[in-house]
Amino acid sequence: MKDEETLVSNKNISKINGVSFVASRDSLKQKNIESILRIHANYAAIMPFGFIKSLDHPEVVYNQDRQWYGETKKGAKQYVNLLHNNNIKVMMKPQIWVWRGEFTGLLKMASEADWLQLEASYKSFIIDYAKLAETEGIEIFCIGTELETFIEHRPEYWRELISEVKTVYKGKLTYAANWDEYKRVSFWDLLDYIGVDAYFPVSESKTPSLGEAKEGWERWKNELKAFSEKENKKILFTEYGYRSVNFSGKKPWKSDREMNSVNLEAQANLLKGLYQSVWEEDWFAGGFLWKWFIAHESVGGSEDNQFSPQNKPAEVIVDNCYSEN
Q1: How far apart are CA 156 and CA 160, in angstroms?
Q2: How far apart are the first and last CA of the chain?
Q3: Among 45, 114, 208, 212, which residue has the least CB neighbours within 10 Å?
Q4: CA-CA distance, 155 to 148, in Å (whole number)?
């Protein structure tokens, strides 16, 4: 039987109230931090990128001159230093971008030789940033994002990779599993948090009410709680969020350009429903809102239908939750 005391109650413990801080072409300035402070965020995810040409290509290319500044090691370090100077903690979350924006979960090699090359290339990418995370005192390091086929086909590699990461980085570790993947990940026992990109479908409605959003979370809450207790680890939403678009609770992961309506109420209600459903749960560690841009004054707004809540009614919803937790 699990030791109940190891799942410490969160009643008097601040949650991870995070934002996914989108890398920019430019260096970070103090004015870029002010909007994060205003919503009472206490964490930011920094996301340097590596690139792969196709879903069957075995090489990760990263830290290149042609990348945006914030996607590189130099940029990530500068971002982290300024965030830390403002008492904002950091999760380093190196991510893969497949050339045409294809889903990373489908990454699969055609031969054993290619798998071995991919493993070596990905290890260099992750260990490099794990070393940076240790040097900069980063609080959480994420070893990968939505790589379910890679994990399914090469399970021992991932356990070995985690072991190697631990030789160079001493902070907390997680992995960002997709919402329909997390129960199949086999190495949670080696990590500190069960990371979930929380794009759970919660409503079929064009404009979900708060009640509908909360009702839609009941099934997922029960599953997450049971899994947290089974693994004796807290759940961390490594990403969560909704677009300000019609039917945004139906398939929250969708970013299709064909979805061109604007529905600010749907986004606000869905976020409020998520917060009221899970944020005070003992098994829940907190989460990172997808997504937050540096140039706050020129993003989001009443005509925007993308994920960012900036300069929308949803921003107030985020602030209300973060200021209370």
Answers
A1: 6
A2: 30
A3: 114
A4: 10
